[in-house]
Amino acid sequence: MSYIIPPQSTVALGDTGLTVSTIAWGMWRYAGDDVAAARARVEAALDAGITLLDTADIYGPDNGEPFGAAEALLGRVLADSPGLRDRMVLASKGGISMGVPYDSSPTYLAGAIDASLTRLGCDRIDLYQIHRPDLLTHPQEVARTLDDARTAGKIVAVGVSNHTPAQTAALAAFLNVPLVSQQPEFSALTTTPLFDGIIDQAMERGMAVLAWSPLGGGRLADPQDARARAVVALLDAKAAEARVDRAAVAYSWIMAHPARPIPIVGTQNPARIAAIPDAYTPRWTRTEWYAVLEASLGEKLP
After folding, report:
1. Using the 8-state DSSP alphabet, how is residue 104 labeled?
2. Cβ neighbours of residue 83 under 8 Å, at least 6 residues apart?
3. Which residues, 6 or more positions from 60, have their beta carbon under 8 angstroms from its beta carbon?
């Protein structure tokens, strides 16, 4: 039986000189006032070999906290334990303004980068991503702002999130350095990036694909319809074979694609964070992988 070759545990992020783990830890739900508990979550990720930490300036309001709260909490952790910063590749995002909703104009975006650095207590963000495309800002203006921040040493690498391939290409055309990442929603229940050109473009350009909501927004944990239950049945069969949990299998299915998508794992439980490397255990045959895709699509592939 022939299995798809699993990913390595680390990968180069373009030609930036940065090396990242092939699973990321996401901080959308990173919240609270307990710095020791917040530090324990970060340490659990780093100790598990997860070096790519993904946050954003907009993370906070969804948790009933202010804009920038997740970055500020991480900043408090890094102030308390400065040595942690050198163990991570820190990614953040900007370009969403509460109530606007999107703003990547030069003044706003430059200010957003500075504000993120202040909250984080850092002199640089390793990977800065435009969170969502601002349709009212020309990509040349976005590129100029990002290039200026990079020249100033405030950011190292540049990526995008929730951009179409055309929007990605338009921004890339004006940047002085290549875009190194794209961040779409991608899971065994949200397979659109396989067909809309996002993943194909990433492979063409050598961009990392950071997959947000890799558990389908909780639908893989609690399937509510026939399609989700069909997918979960296949994932559970693989989980039993590999002796890991369903989440690990769901991540491994994503990582089996040749683009080597990097799932962004959002659990805030230190024990579950420590178990993230279980995702490297399952092995998929082509038949098994395609069976999950067909179950998700609800039809056989032609």
Report:
1. -
2. none
3. 31, 66, 67, 68, 69, 70, 72
Tokens representing 120 are 């984080």
The answer to whether the pTM exceeds 0.85 is yes
Beta strand residue intervals within 7-62, DSSP E: 10-12, 19-21, 24-26, 52-54
Identify the CATH class of 10-183.
Answer: alpha beta
The set of catalytic residues is 59
Question: Are the C-beta atoms of residues 156 and 18 closer than 8 Å to each other?
Answer: yes
Pairing of strands 52-54, 24-26: parallel
17: DSSP letter: S
pLDDT, tens digit only, all 302 positions of the chain: 799 999 999 999 999 999 999 999 999 999 999 999 999 999 999 999 999 999 999 999 999 999 999 999 999 999 999 999 999 999 999 999 999 999 999 999 999 999 999 999 999 999 999 999 999 999 999 999 999 999 999 999 999 999 999 999 999 999 999 999 999 999 999 999 999 999 999 999 999 999 999 999 999 999 999 999 999 999 999 999 999 999 999 999 999 999 999 999 999 999 999 999 999 999 999 999 999 999 999 999 99
Query: Residue holding tokens 């804009």?
Result: 67
> Which of left, alpha, beta for 263 (phi over 0: left; psi -120 to 50: alpha)?
beta
User: In terms of C-beta density within 10 A (0-12 exposed, 13-18 middle, 19 or more buried), how is residue 15 classed?
Assistant: exposed
